[in-house]
Design brief:
- InterPro entries: DapB_C (IPR022663), DapB_N (IPR000846), DapB_N_CS (IPR022664), DHDPR_bac (IPR023940), NAD(P)-bd_dom_sf (IPR036291).
- This protein folds into 2 domains: 7-125 and 241-269, Rossmann fold (3-Layer(aba) Sandwich); 131-238, Dihydrodipicolinate Reductase, domain 2, CATH 3.30.360.10.
- 35% of the residues lie in helices and 23% in strands.
- The chain has helices at 16-27, 49-53, 82-95, 108-118, 131-147, 170-182, 187-190, 242-255, 265-269, and strands at residues 7-11, 32-37, 62-63, 75-78, 98-101, 122-125, 153-160, 191-192, 207-213, 219-227, 230-238, 261-263.
- A 7-stranded parallel sheet has the order 3-2-1-4-5-6-12, sandwiched between helices. A 5-stranded mixed sheet has the order 8-9-7-10-11.
- The protein has 9 helices and 12 strands.
- The radius of gyration is 20 Å and the shape is elongated.
- The protein binds NADPH dihydro-nicotinamide-adenine-dinucleotide phosphate and the ligand O=C(O)C1=N[C@H](C(=O)O)C[C@H](O)C1.
């Protein structure tokens, strides 16, 4: 293990991503599993993190407050819910910690609040931490620049498991932003998130979104560029949450060495 291995705490450690993150940190020789936080009052406080994740005892117990482990960690990884994440960012600002945020579904106001904290906290914030999705974002930028103003209609289709609470997914929205940015369009103006009834023909500049929620789908995203006579589809399919978790641990190692500021996965992966 490297002498500079960051000590990582995982908030929301009993969740789908939280348990996967425990596994990912344990598999990384350059990261230390320093703690896990469950909801205040949760019956899981005191449970062994390895046993919670189903990977065998690790000798680190879950706690139900960040204060309980404030001196034990350097970087917090947070995949929870917007309000929880913002409260944790405030804690990181107060106590000089770095943070990796995977939570999606933040409103514009919540994103602005996050930006304010990131002036004081080294922060990686990304709706999708997989290498494949972040490469896909680059492919989309290239495709949009080449095709977008040539009469190709652009639609974003995403599918996720039945438990997901936000829609469209953070990744789908980021894909829409990337495509819109490449075409000098504003997603707020051109994004279409619902079509029902007599909604009329398609505006050529629309960027449409469609959402599927079903079963145990880990996460699938397609951006379609369609015109008369042909259709290009750029698709990413995640088949395991480990792809997100490995990306988050990589981001944690990276951000532990950074100054305060808001960063994305393209910074972590050196894709810009
Ligand atoms: N950026 C990325 O790569 C990815 C992002 N995500 C995003 O991550 C988020 C979480 O997803 P997922 O793991 O599926 O959701 P889960 O609901 O499975 O996990 C969230 C966890 O947070 C816990 N929690 C809620 N409040 C607190 C609190 N105050 N303190 C500590 N823990 C708390 C919940 O506890 P309880 O169950 O008791 O409520 C739950 O265990 C979503 O926003 C999702 O979109 C998901 C995958 C990849
Ligand atoms: O909630 C999920 O599961 C996922 N959420 C992220 C999103 O909203 O984009 C990323 C991933 O697709 C899984």
């Amino acid at each position: 293990m490297s002498r500079t291995a960051p000590r990582i705490a995982i908030v929301g450690v009993a969740g789908r991503m939280g348990r996967t993150l425990v596994n990912a940190v344990m598999q990384d020789d350059d990261a230390v599993l320093a703690g896990g936080i469950v909801e205040p009052g949760s019956s899981l406080a005191g449970a062994d993190l390895g046993e919670l994740a189903g990977v065998g005892r690790q000798g680190v117990a879950a706690v139900d407050s960040l204060e309980a482990i404030v001196d034990d960690f350097d970087v917090l990884i947070d995949f929870t819910a917007p309000k929880v994440t913002l409260a944790n960012l405030a804690f990181c600002a107060e106590h000089g910690k770095a943070i990796v945020i995977g939570t999606t579904g933040l409103s514009d106001d919540e994103q602005a609040e996050l930006d304010g904290y990131a002036e004081r906290v080294p922060t990686v914030f990304a709706p999708n931490m997989s290498v494949g999705v972040n490469l896909t974002l680059k492919l989309l930028e290239t495709a949009a620049k080449a095709l977008g103003d040539e009469g190709y209609d652009i639609e974003v289709i995403e599918s996720h498991h039945r438990h997901k609470v936000d829609a469209p997914s953070g990744t789908a929205l980021r894909m829409g932003e990337v495509v819109a940015g490449a075409l000098d369009r504003n997603l707020k103006e051109h994004g279409v998130f619902e079509r029902v009834g007599q909604c009329g023909p398609r505006d050529p500049k629309e960027i449409g979104f469609a959402t599927v929620r079903a079963g145990d789908i880990v996460g699938e995203h397609t951006v379609m560029f369609a015109t008369e006579g042909e259709r290009i589809e750029i698709t990413h399919k995640a088949s395991s949450r480990m792809t997100f978790a490995r990306g988050a641990v990589r981001a944690a190692r990276w951000v532990a060495e950074r100054e305060a500021g808001r960063y994305g996965m393209s910074d972590v992966l050196g894709l810009d």
